[in-house]
Amino acid sequence: MGVEIQIDNLSKSFGKQLIWGNVTLTVPAGEVSVMLGPSGTGKSVLLKTLIGLLKPDEGSVVIEGTDIATCSEKDLYEIRKLFGVLFQDGAMFGSMNLYDNVAFPLREHTKKSESEIRDIVMEKMDLVGLLGAEDKLPGEISGGMRKRAGLARALVLDPEIVLFDEPDSGLDPVRTAFLNQLIVDLNAQIDATFLIVTHDINTARTVPDNIGLLYHKHLAMFGPREMLLSSEEPVVRQFLNAQRVGPIGMSEEKDADELEAEKDQEMPPLPPIPMQLEPSNGIPRRSQRPAGEWCREHGVTPPPGSFDGNMSMATGG
Fold first, then answer.
1. Containing H/E element for 105?
2. pLDDT one-digit tens code per residue, 133-192
3. Are 236 and 228 in contact (CB under 8 A)?
4. Closest to 84 measured CA to CA, from 113, 50, 55
5. What positions does the domain ABC transporter occupy (predicted)?
6. Nearest Cα residue to 237 out of 249, 224, 248
7. What is the Cα 25 distance to its own chain's centre?
8. In the chain, how many domains are there?
9. Is the dihedral angle over the CA atoms 219, 223, 228, 230 positive or is it negative?
10. Inside any domain, residue 97
11. Which helix H or strand E contains 76, and what residues bound it?
12. What is the pLDDT of residues 237-263, one digit of tens each?
């Protein structure tokens, strides 16, 4: 089972430029969480802070009792063994074939024999559907295959936390759909904590258990998927439903004139909440909640047509 990430009052600046401040949330153990936000809001900076590549100006990131913002380099090295990271472009070594790329963390961080390494590498390549491609170089395969190879490498140390930095960037909608299904299937199999940074709204609406939104140098909201997909908070509603009307503009925040011009415009109605993507075998993940459960528990009426039109699931009727 994955481990919880407790983030408290986290702030990060580069020089005089505040990236985000007072970020507080708990990423639940074993669940899939997505972090959204307009371009330039520091989503990737947040991931780098969580693994200690960047030090925050204030606040704490506590994992299994260790605050990685203040711990020693030795303790940070040990905590990092809990992590697997899928970088935006796969970050593969171009001169190594896929097998050696995936084997690299095992050779660097363990004393396993080459025969043990081979068993693990082939197991992970099988998990991501790359058996038979282990002798290929990164330059000889598609972007989608490089993403899957990067994911196999992120999994070889059996991490309890897996971070995905825009896994869908550069992929067409079909490959993104396949990758999303793979992420859901992997979470069901390894039960690790997944945190995904993405711009893809369909991914955010169908894959995670929880959604967060960074906006205007702070965390606008973080919570269960249904909470955000039924939210009337303008910035959350605008972003999650890809609407033009709302506080977000081309330069992140609309100016006073833009807001004044649209003050009499009503925001479009909330679209239906889709069913959450399930594992391929049809067996719900441990953390997966029945459709409409959060809405029922909190007395929220979901938008018409939610959950494939089965409103009895959302209302208990």
1. helix 98-109
2. 999 999 898 888 888 899 999 999 999 999 999 888 878 888 889 889 999 999 999 899
3. yes
4. 50
5. 5-241
6. 248
7. 14
8. 1
9. negative
10. yes
11. helix 73-80
12. 888 888 777 777 655 555 555 555 556
